[in-house]
Structures are given as structure tokens and as C-alpha cells.
């Protein structure tokens, strides 16, 4: 990757100003920027011909490009990256934006899913992009586990958590299960589960089965060992990624090429694929990260930008993420603080609820 600080140091003040104004104008309008329009906004009086020469130099450096036959220029992916890393001015969250995000917490209650859904809707509304909210896995201690047979190849596991939350998961049990083997499996798990989260239970379960093989019937052991009912629930990962505001991505889009890219992005969002990778994007450190175009490995084919930030629990462990995805001409200066504030707020609220 090019050294942006070195490139900037080689540019004179006029080049930097032309570059910054082209990028800012493009991010605001989405249109190519011509030399004539820049003559009106430059801090020093220069001719359109002089600005054209500077723009040609910036194009030669790989920072600007010429779309189609337009006389105007737009920033390249490399140019956007350099602008974001070196020249982007990010302020505080505007008061009305903060109020709207805070308002998502207004309806009190313990339902984390509806809270995150409201957060996603607020984010997409504020940014006019699509919002992505990765919900945390449910990690409260377990109070009780019970298996219920529904059909020869279908069963239900009821998980009752210490905070009163109840989950019913339908699954396909190993063949040959009987009411007594299900009852025995439930008793075995309850002896281990009380006070432990699902993640903690998973860690101890195989060790306990090895040590107590003679104490548990083979059918019940199969049911416990399969673990399907508890931590490989089909569709659970799909429910963790909440996507809101897809329609915003179509606003003002007429170019067939752009529509094609958005369709690819819609397909990716519909599949909600690579959720683990989505979280990995944020795990290299705290704070907001920006992925532009092909840097964004989850949605690279759509040429979109992703602004994403992790949120943490009370133990400072990353448990989820919030983000905004849209065209590369996002209003980064406004969206970055919104995403950052939202992530911190969600982390704080979930930490307080886990203590409550």
C-alpha cells in the first residue's frame, strides 16, 4: 500500500487544496468535479487552466480519475483512502443525531433484539445508507434445559436463562431417541449447566462425558454430544446480522453499472454471509474502521464502502458491531462519529443490562 504521508509531503499547498476540494465536492454531490467550478472556491485566485494542470498531475499520481468522457474528475479508491487517512476532518456527533440515537433506548425493557433493531433503523435513517448491526450471542447463565420430542425426526430444546429469557429451538436429534433418553440427557446437562453460559457449557461438556461415560445411557450421550440443539442451531447466525435501510442504496441511482453493483450487494446482504468475517473486520482494535471498495472483502464486488465499529461488554470483550454500508461517496465526516457514538452507546447499555 502506498505511503500516503510521503505522497502528501511531495504535494504543494495548491495540489493539496485542489485534491481536497475535488474529494469534498464529489462526496457531497456524487458528480465529477470540473476545473471551472473549482476556480470559484479556491482560496487563491487561479485560472481554470492552472487547476486543469494540477488535476492532471493528481491523476498521474493515481489520486483522481476521469469517468467516461466527462471533463470532470472523481477520486480513485486510492485517493479516497488517502483523503480519509490524512485529510478527513471528523467532528463530534451533531446534537440532533445524538438525540435520535439516544431515543432508540427510550422504550425500556430487556429485549435486546428489539433495541438493536431500533438502533439499525435509526442508523439507516440518519446516514441514508444501509445499516448493519451484529447482535451478540446470547450469553446469560442457563437456569434449565429441557428436551421435548415433536416427531421421530424433530425435537425441541427449551433453554431457560437466569435472567428469565427463554429460547425454544427446534432441531433434528440423533436417530432412535426415546422420552427417557431425552429426559436423561436433560438431567445430565442441567447438572452441568446451572450458572454457566452456553459457551462455558460447551467447554466442559465433552470432558464430563469422557469422565462419566458409564453414568449416561448411549442414546442420551449421543444427544448431548451432538450439541446440535444448543450451539449449532440452524439459522441462528443469520438472525445475528440485522440489516435495515436497503432501499436507501437505490436513491438517485440510475446508471446500469451502479444498479448492477447494488444488486450484488443486496444479494450479499440477503444471504447475510460471512458473519464471522464481519466481526473479524473490527477485531484488530477499538474504534471505527473504514473499508473502501475492494478493501471491503465482504462486499468487494459491489464497490461499496463500509464504516464499522465494534462494541464491547463490561469485560471489554468485543461482542458485536454496528456499521453503515453505502456508495463510496458516503459523508464520512458525519457518518464516522455517528457510528462511533452508536457503538459506544450499545456497548454501555448492554453492559449495564448484564449487571442488572
TrEMBL record:
InterPro entries from the entry?
A: GAF-like_dom_sf (IPR029016), HrcA (IPR002571), HrcA_C (IPR021153), WH-like_DNA-bd_sf (IPR036388), WH_DNA-bd_sf (IPR036390), WHTH_transcript_rep_HrcA_IDD (IPR023120)
Q: Name one GO biological process term.
A: negative regulation of DNA-templated transcription
Residue span(s) of domain Heat-inducible transcription repressor HrcA C-terminal: 114-336
Work out whether the entry's keyword set contains Transit peptide: no
Per UniProt, what is one Pfam family of this protein?
A: HrcA
- Lineage, top-rank taxon, reads Bacteria
Q: Does the keyword Repressor apply?
A: yes
Q: Which UniProt keywords apply?
A: Repressor, Stress response, Transcription, Transcription regulation
The GO terms this record gives for MF are:
DNA binding
HAMAP family registered for this protein in UniProt? HrcA (MF_00081)
Cited function: Negative regulator of class I heat shock genes (grpE-dnaK-dnaJ and groELS operons). Prevents heat-shock induction of these operons.
What family is this?
Belongs to the HrcA family.
Against NCBIfam families, the record matches this protein to: hrcA
Quote the protein name from its UniProt record. Heat-inducible transcription repressor HrcA
Amino acid at each position: 500500500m502506498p505511503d500516503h504521508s510521503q505522497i502528501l509531503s511531495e504535494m504543494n499547498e495548491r495540489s493539496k487544496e485542489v485534491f481536497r476540494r475535488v474529494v469534498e465536492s464529489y462526496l457531497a454531490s456524487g458528480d465529477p468535479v470540473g476545473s471551472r467550478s473549482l476556480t470559484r472556491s479556491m482560496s487563491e485566485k487561479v485560472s481554470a487552466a492552472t487547476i486543469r494542470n494540477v488535476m492532471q498531475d493528481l491523476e498521474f499520481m493515481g489520486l483522481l480519475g476521469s469517468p467516461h468522457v466527462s471533463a470532470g474528475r472523481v477520486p480513485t479508491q486510492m485517493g479516497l483512502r488517502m483523503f480519509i487517512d490524512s485529510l478527513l476532518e471528523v467532528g463530534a456527533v451533531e446534537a440532533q443525531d445524538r438525540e435520535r440515537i439516544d431515543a432508540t433506548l427510550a422504550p425500556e425493557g430487556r429485549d435486546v433484539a428489539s433495541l438493536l433493531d431500533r438502533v439499525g433503523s435509526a442508523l439507516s435513517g440518519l446516514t441514508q445508507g444501509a445499516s448493519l448491526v451484529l447482535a451478540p450471542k446470547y450469553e446469560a447463565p442457563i437456569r434449565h434445559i429441557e428436551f421435548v420430542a415433536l416427531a421421530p425426526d424433530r425435537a425441541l430444546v427449551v433453554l431457560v436463562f437466569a435472567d428469565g429469557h427463554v429460547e425454544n429451538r427446534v432441531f433434528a436429534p440423533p436417530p432412535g431417541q426415546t422420552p427417557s433418553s431425552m429426559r436423561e440427557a436433560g438431567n445430565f446437562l442441567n447438572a452441568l449447566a446451572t450458572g454457566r453460559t452456553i459457551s462455558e457449557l460447551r467447554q466442559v461438556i465433552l470432558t464430563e462425558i469422557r469422565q462419566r461415560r458409564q453414568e449416561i445411557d448411549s442414546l442420551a450421550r449421543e444427544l448431548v454430544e451432538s450439541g446440535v440443539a444448543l450451539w449449532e442451531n440452524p439459522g441462528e447466525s443469520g438472525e445475528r446480522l440485522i440489516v435495515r435501510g436497503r432501499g436507501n442504496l437505490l436513491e438517485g441511482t440510475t446508471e446500469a453499472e451502479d444498479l448492477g453493483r447494488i444488486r450484488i450487494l443486496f444479494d450479499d446482504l440477503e444471504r447475510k454471509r460471512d458473519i464471522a468475517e464481519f466481526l473479524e473486520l473490527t477485531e484488530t482494535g477499538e474504534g471505527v474502521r473504514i473499508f473502501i471498495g475492494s478493501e471491503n472483502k465482504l462486499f468487494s464486488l459491489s464497490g461499496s464502502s463500509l464504516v464499522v465499529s465494534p462494541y464491547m461488554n463490561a469485560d471489554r470483550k468485543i461482542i458485536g458491531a454496528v456499521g453503515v454500508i453505502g456508495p463510496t461517496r458516503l459523508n464520512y465526516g458525519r457518518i464516522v462519529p455517528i457510528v462511533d457514538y452508536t457503538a459506544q452507546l450499545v456497548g454501555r447499555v448492554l453492559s449495564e443490562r448484564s449487571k442488572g
